[in-house]
Amino acid sequence: MLAFLVLLSVALASAHLHDEHFEGDKVFRVDVEDESHINLLKELVNTMQIDFWKPDSVTQVKPQSTVDFRVKAEDVSIVEDFLEQNELPSEILINNLKSLLEDQFDSRVRATGHSYVKYNKWETIEAWTQQVANENPDLISRSIIGTTFEGRNMYLLKVGKAGSNKPAIFMDCGFHAREWISPAFCQWFVREAIRTYGHEIHMTELLEQLDFYILPVVNIDGYVHTWTKNRMWRKTRSTHPGSSCIGTDPNRNFDAGWCQIGASHQPCDDTYCGPSAESEKETKALADFIRNNLSSIKAYLTIHSYSQMMLYPYSYDYKLTKDNVELNTLAKATVKELATLHGTKYTYGPGATTIYPAAGGSDDWAYDQGIKYSFTFELRDKGRYGFILPESQIQPTCEETMLAIKHVAAYVLDHLY
């Protein structure tokens, strides 16, 4: 009976997940060797709609790289023929997206409310922010830093023991709606702070000497949309005059080389930079909060997925920052620490060269505001599941990421500026 109930809850969870049916959709990986391969991909994009997973668009494809993209069921045979005829080296990462979407709810934990080892809907996360603040008043306070395009409150949790003039670390999750493992980590971080304060020496020291500002979900409207309408949605849900296409990529919407490279001026594109920098209410709320607290914020950490990387500025330019040597050394030590638990291998480096050039990102913006320790984490995995990481991987992913965040925080505490 229990097994049946678990299966039923999984079926119900996936049944209400989206109006978009992904039956027969495939995710391909293509090995791009040279410019001729890039041109072939551009040719393919011009003939049909392709959902780029890594990189975010065809304009970011580089020679000697791999490209992951989703193709709708009705276009699969055309794409397969195209890849074969042009001798593009490729493999199928995901054979049927719908079955993978159903399998992502594979946690055996039975929870009707909030759970740290399951993916939680926004309403559940919202209630959780209130509950953790109420239950841990000595450690956590909750505030509203703005509202989304659709009018939802953006909750910020301040985590740390009360003290005056404490340095702070700002961390956000859920920039891109479909990257569900990201908000799961922000919730996990808060859980670990509560669970280990006063019991574990390092966390206790961090919470007594630092404040952590945690924004559990930046792009709330988009996140809600991935639960109700389209699991593969990425952008915000704002509307734009003169276009029927919805949404802006919030991580192309910051005033850091805005829309110069790796971003699109086309409202229908996944990497649309918006009509102007900080046009999105979500972006502006985040930026305003950081600007208002610049004197105390010493590190900015933004959590994304997937590809197992730790990136630092710049992404909007190939130039290196003046702190490049220090940021590189810290990133190297951090990914080494992360790997000690489950052996998960991360790569690291400046965004533009390590993953792809992309203007208007929050990490570059934060760095240019004077926040030296500015990092983007791309969590698991490397493409086997991509954005559809199963719930059974939430705990190991969060455990190892926790080691990384604590390592960065301890470093920042020892190197205040």
From TrEMBL:
Keywords: Carboxypeptidase, Cytoplasmic vesicle, Disulfide bond, Hydrolase, Metal-binding, Metalloprotease, Protease, Secreted, Signal, Zinc, Zymogen. Pfam families: Peptidase_M14, Propep_M14. It is found in: Secreted; Zymogen granule lumen. Coiled coil: none annotated. GO terms for cellular component: cytoplasmic vesicle; extracellular space. Its EC number is 3.4.17.2. Residues 118-412 form the Peptidase M14 domain. PROSITE patterns: CARBOXYPEPT_ZN_1, CARBOXYPEPT_ZN_2, PEPTIDASE_M14. GO terms for molecular function: metallocarboxypeptidase activity; zinc ion binding. The keyword Membrane does not apply. GO terms for biological process: proteolysis. It catalyses: Preferential release of a C-terminal lysine or arginine amino acid. SUPFAM superfamilies: Protease propeptides/inhibitors, Zn-dependent exopeptidases. It is an enzyme of class 3 (hydrolase). The active site is at E378 (proton donor/acceptor). Belongs to the peptidase M14 family. This is Carboxypeptidase B. The lineage of its organism: Eukaryota, Metazoa, Chordata, Craniata, Vertebrata. The gene is CPB1.
